[in-house]
Structure formats: structure tokens, C-alpha cells
Amino acid sequence: MMERLMLWLDEKFSTPMAKLSEQRHLRAVRDGIVGTLPIITVGSFFLIIAFPPVPADTALALWAKAHGATILLPYRLTMYMMSLYAAWGIGHSLAKSYDLDGVSGAQLAVVAFLMTMVPRAVDGLGWALPMANLGGSGMFVAIMTSILAVEIMRFVYKSNFKISMPEQVPPSVARSFKALTPTAIVVVLMTFITFVFGFDWHGVVTKIMAPLVTTSDTLFGVLVPVGLITVFWSAGIHGASVVGSLARPIWTVLLDANAKAVADGLPLPHIAPEPFYQWFIWIGGAGSTIGLVLLMAFASKSVYSRSLGRMALAPGLFNINEPLIFGAPIVLNPILIIPFILTPIVLAIISYIAMAFHLVARPFIMAPWTLPGPIGAFVATGGDWRAIVLSVVCILIAMIIYYPFFKIYDNKQLALEKEDH
Questions:
Q1: 168 partner at 20 to 30 Å CA-CA among 123, 156, 178, 213?
Q2: Are strands 120-122 and 126-128 parallel, antiparallel or unpaired?
């Protein structure tokens, strides 16, 4: 039965899902949003500086309170505007996938996204953009308009309805003239949609996506991507690439809402932005394999298991587990696939309940994903020591779940080694 399942996964599941992960629009969305992670990560650290995890009456806390508005400016110009940066990345990636000029595609995507905003007159200050729409709440609009802009650009170039310059003209100048026609079409089109017809891009998209965003922050909404990612990995497909392309825009909305709540001094509304998965479920990498790595490194009887475990230990501590996934292997392995799928589900349930009952702070910081689990959990929650405890508990639970399957695997490897000798 298990062999038939593995054969089905390999033949009927892996190939179409691998193709899906490389679909150009999904890849562009993935590349654009992933490209914003350094900006989000650095920007979110200013929230820790503005709200340090120390008692309120200490000198550091008093200093941060007095200078909070200034300290938060880097956050407001980085993480608070993540959708603007994502639009640039999506436009660049999608244009390059069509062998078009990436810079022109990126700039056109930014123009299209900005033209969904309606500037407001501010007395004595001129005009102002609604900044909230530049953050996570505008991510879905940024995705839509960026794809629309690049597709218009591709259509114009394909139909040769463009301005071409002689070969003697420098490439940078020729590129600018070439982009005039698609830019004019995008600007005029967005002007009519947004300003003439008064279409509220952000209001409409928010209403449409609200149920999906709300569901994603439920326990069911957490378990679905967790299960899908591990199933994809079990078939040899990079699960985070497939599921992340679809889910990461939602996770950034949740993260942005939590960050805004911290900046405004309000309770954190969401449990499951992306750091929740990274630091309380994917400890050691997809499948929560830190438990298996520790068992293989320190409890193996077979030479191969022990050697692989010790080789994978250092990368595993920093959440890199490809050596284990493909070295054991876990991919298409009927013994190890079971705990590989089960462990993250159990950890997701435990961690979700802990945060739902406020036993552990909810994450609002995008910590670098290569931090060791407990340290990353501490940083992501703004310095909550209980996050370290929960992370350690999750590691121990992962070891317990993996243990019986590890023993079967290790004994099998030991028997093979004895046969060879």
C-alpha cells in the first residue's frame, strides 16, 4: 500500500506540482515578496528598539519612549511600505521571465500600483498618500497591478506597437523610448479606473480577501499550509516555493497588522504570520527535522545514520535540512514521511493554542531565518522568554514523535551494514 502511494506521488503528483512551482506568475510573486524580506527584517528590528523587552521603568525603556517617533521612522519607510517594494520585485521578475527589460517592468509595476492610491489634501501640508495601503494591506493590489502592468508591456512589445530608436542610440536611451507606449497605456488606463470611474482598488480587494486572511489565522488555516508543504517535500518538491507563493502575501498582511499594532501600542491581533511557522513549526527546517537530526547524531547505532546526523547537525541548527531530506532520504521514504508530516502538525497545534491563550507572545518581528530556533523565537516575539521555552518544548516533542520511526530506520541501516560486512 505504501509503495503504491510512493509511486503515485512520484508519477502523478511530483511532475505537475513541480511545474506549478515554476509557473511564471507565481514565481514572480514569490520572487517579489521574498525580495522584500531583507527590508522587512531590518525594518522590523526598529520595533524592538522602540519597544525594548525590558521593564517600563528602566533607563532604556524611558529613553525609547521619549524618542519613539524618531526610532520608528526607519520602520515606517521600510516594513511599513513593503507592498511598494514587492511591486518592484514582482514587475522585475515577471518581465525577465518574458525576456523583457527587468528595470522597465519593475518601474511600470510601481507606477501601476501607486496609481491605485488617491492622494488626499492635507491643510498646510499639500498632498499625502494613504500610507497604510503601501504596507501589507496593499499586497494583493500590488500583485494584481504589477502583473497587469507587465502583461500590458509584453502585449505592446509583441504587437510592435512601440517606439524604436536607431542602433546608434545608447541602449539606456533606446530602452526609455521603447517603454513610452506601454507606460502611456498603463497610466491612462489606471487614471480612468481609479480617478475617473472612482474604483476603490484597496477597498474592494480587502473585502474579497478578508475571509481568506481571517481563515489563514485560524488553526485550520495554519494546518492546511503545514500539511501541504510537508506533502510536497515528501514528493521531492520544494514545498515552501509552491505553498509560499500563494500563502506568503497573506502572511505578510498578518505580520504587517501585528507590527502596526505594536507601533500603535495595541494588542497583537494575529497568531500566524510567517514567523509563527518559521520559529515554532519549521524548527530545523521543513518537517521540524531538528528532532530527527539530534536523534541521528547522538542516538544512532548505524554508522551511516550517525555520520549523516552529525554532518546535518550544523546546517540543521540553522534551519537548513536539505542534506537530511535528500541524504536519509526523507523524500519518498515510507518510514520517515510519516513523522515528517505528523510532527509539524502537532507542533502547530501546540504553538497555536499557547498563543491563543496568551501563554506566549505573538510574533511581529521577521527575524533572519538562519537563527537557531529558540533564539529566532525570542527575537520574533520581541524578546519574550516564554517563546524560548515553547521552542525547546517543541524540539523535545519533535524528538519524541520521530523516535520510533528513527529506530526503525536506524535498525534497517544497521542490518544493511552488517550484510555488507
A1: 156
A2: antiparallel
Which CA distances in Å does 335 have to 1, 58, 327?
Answer: 13, 53, 14
Q: Measured in Å, how far apart are the chain's first and last C-alpha atoms?
A: 32
Helix axes 290-299, 303-317, angle to 10 degrees: 140
- Please give the Cα distance from 258 to 123 (Å, whole number): 31
Q: State the residue range of the domain holding 375.
A: 271-420
Q: How far apart are CA 107 and CA 134, in angstroms?
A: 16
3-state helix, strand, coil in the chain (%, to 5): 70, 0, 25
- Count of alpha carbons within 13 angstroms of residue 196, beta-carbon side: 7
- Read off the pLDDT of residues 143-179 as tens digits, 9 standing for 90 and up: 999 999 999 999 998 887 666 655 655 666 666 667 7
Contact 257, 269 (CB under 8 A): yes
CA 222 to chain centre: 14
Q: What whole-number distance in Å separates Cα of residue 34 and Cα of residue 89? A: 9
The amino acid at residue 257 is A
Distance CA 319, CA 338 (A): 20
User: Which grid cell is 170?
Assistant: 545608447
Residue-level pLDDT at 234: 82
Quick check: is 36 in a domain? yes
**221 in a domain, yes or no?**
no
- Asked if residues 399 and 356 have their Cβ atoms less than 8 Å apart, the reply is no
Q: Residue 391 is placed in which grid cell? A: 521552542
Same-domain check for residues 169 and 280 = no
What integer is the mean pLDDT of 48-72? 89
Q: How many domains does the chain have?
A: 2
Cell of 346: 502537532
Query: What secondary structure letter does DSSP report for 121?
Result: E
